[in-house]
Specification:
The chain is mainly α. The chain is 45% helix and 2% strand. The chain has a domain of 42 residues. The protein contains 12 helices and 2 strands, in the order βαβααααααααααα. The longest helix has 22 residues. The two termini are 21 Å apart.
Amino acid sequence: MDPTGGQLHGSDRLHESTPATQQTAQETDLPIEVSPETTYFTEPRMADGRVDYAAAINRITSEGVTPENNASILMLHAFGPELLDPQWRAEYYQRVGMEPLATEGQWFVDIKRFAEQRGIDMDPPLDPELEPFREELMQTIREGGGDSSEHPELFQALSELARRPPTERPRTLADHLDDATRKAWTAEDYPHLAEWLEVNQEPLEMVVAASLRSKRFDPVLASDGEPWIGTSLPVSAAFTRAGLALSARSTYRLGSGEVDRAIDD
């Protein structure tokens, strides 16, 4: 059953907009006059005279899109509601015309989360004497700081490790995933990757179904006055992550002799 429903409201406004009029900078208190000479979009307008760019983009990108042909809906069913900022979830669902997703479900598990759940280190092992520095360094970076002068020994070790040819440094899960997207492989080659793909079997089938849809509408959502140009499009990131997994699954199937299924991915 197709997990969609509701009506698409791609042209709805998140905040009130009005049709374009030939307003001058003096009439609207804007620093420039809104016209074809200054901006590509001249409508719709917000109450203060500014162009509602989010509404303009949504109106164009939602043309011809329905809940039945929108790939983004199936991507959300594959990745779950965590893709969406909680403050925008209800608005997003309404815009694309889908029922709200349940809090829990069989969602796609990212390779890094999978590694954490299994206790697999995604990073190359360091010299044991440098291990105590790593968590301190990571905490410093998370807090917005950290440079080579604070932990020169650790940065030196990381630099040396990065310069080693791949055949000389310890192989990690990240390396295996990179290898798996480039050549045919089997579960004996990379057992952890095979398990990761098995965990994501259902979400990946939803992704494949999404790839067969003819349209995609991922609405831009921004509050009045917010610079929407910096607003993230969460489903876009999901396409990238899913593409990596499908690439690895395709070569996995190829290594297992399932040529037709490899082509499907």
